[in-house]
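agent: user wants the structure for Spondin-1 from Thamnophis sirtalis. delegating to structure tool.
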Amino acid sequence: MLGPSPDWNVGLSAEDLCTKDCGWVQKVIQDMIPWDAGTDSGVTYESSNKPTLPQEKIRPLTSLDHPQSPFYDPEGGSIKSVARVVIERIARKGEQCNILPDSIDDIVADLAAEAPEDEDDTPETCIYSNWSPWSACSSSTCEKGKRMRQRMLKAQLDLSVPCPETQDFQPCMGPGCSDEDGSTCMMSEWITWSPCSVSCGMGIRSRERYVKQFPDDGSMCKVPTEETEKCIVNEECSPSSCLVTEWGEWDECSASCGMGMKKRHRMIKMTPADGSMCKAETTEAEKCMNPECHTIPCLLSPWSEWSDCSVTCGKGMRTRQRMLKSAAELGDCNEELEQVEKCMLPECPIDCDLTEWSQWSECNKSCGKGHMIRTRMIKMEPQFGGAPCPETVQRKKCRIRKCLRNPNIEKRRWKESREKRRSEQAKEDVDGGQFPGCKMKPWTAWSECTKLCGGGIQERFMTVKKRFKSSQFTSCKDKKELRACNVHPC
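agent: tool returned. relaying tokens verbatim.
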């Protein structure tokens, strides 16, 4: 027995261990599923011990018996075995036999008598239980659907002979689409009444039952599965009690098939006289059961190979697909048909990045032939095989005027010109540059040269100190100067 339920059990009876040539089988392995003895109407291990009247036939449990059953499967799959018996021969004794044991003959005869309408090509060495009742049709319209029944393999007398399937499917149509008269619904007994909805005064209580077997024509059962009635709690309502309305109608079940949840509500008509909080529940929820879901899943092709990466270097994406081979019989196919994932290739090359060219410097000679230079700076060195940096210093010739024959005079003039420029610059550095409409701060000191040789750049800045409101000039901006430095070859 499978406690604490009083009428679920597993076991073996009249196992045949003979082979066709009157020998003993070497080994028999029998997986066992639970059977219902038909004496108790409980649907779970914890159900109360309520006798089934009249007593039902012994039958194997199925995955479609009741939604609260621990073996319930909305897709109607086979119940997993709960025990396994292994019989293995360890000695050879008494191998002569002429006929099968009477007990096996009796089993075969009894099974044939119980289900004469299910004649098929099942081998005599395979002994099955009776077929379970047909499930509800998977179609709710006049389109073709499927229904299922199952049985249990009780004994396999010859392991070399394969036994047929334990599940059987049959085409069917939705309710009202069959010309034949459908059989009536087979209902369970009513479940015990629920507690009264109030703690004092008049309230409501309910009870439920479920469909044990649907009509053979695949139609839905139209008999009620829930009853409600008024109830009175013989207890005077105290000042802390509150008055509530009757429960409203149940909301629709959250599931269109199989098990779901439903709710109903009520309102507080009068709060407690003593000013306390009303302790009565205003929302009630319970499980609800619609016809079992018998959807045939959609069939999909295997996943394709991953595509090439979407980029030729760096980070990208790649995809793979599969195709819908057959749609689901009920509802849409919700399986994903495409998958996307990240892919990583070697880093992309980064070319050298340079600033713009600076202004040309002054000629390095005051007369005769000389040269000027301009420079630019490297903003980013090349990476991952990018293009190298080009030249950062350019030179060009300059010619101001012919030099006088007396080099001392020319040298003196050049010194005078240089001193004049320095004097003007020094004055500008001290007083700050003056521009129309604003007063400037003094120039900052020259920055360090960007290179030790081969031509670098120094820079300095002048920022606006004050803008005159009365001025009409709008070109008052911060200033920046560049000059060449360390121009000697490396």
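agent: one observation worth passing along. Confidence is low (pLDDT under 50) at residues 95-104, 107-118.
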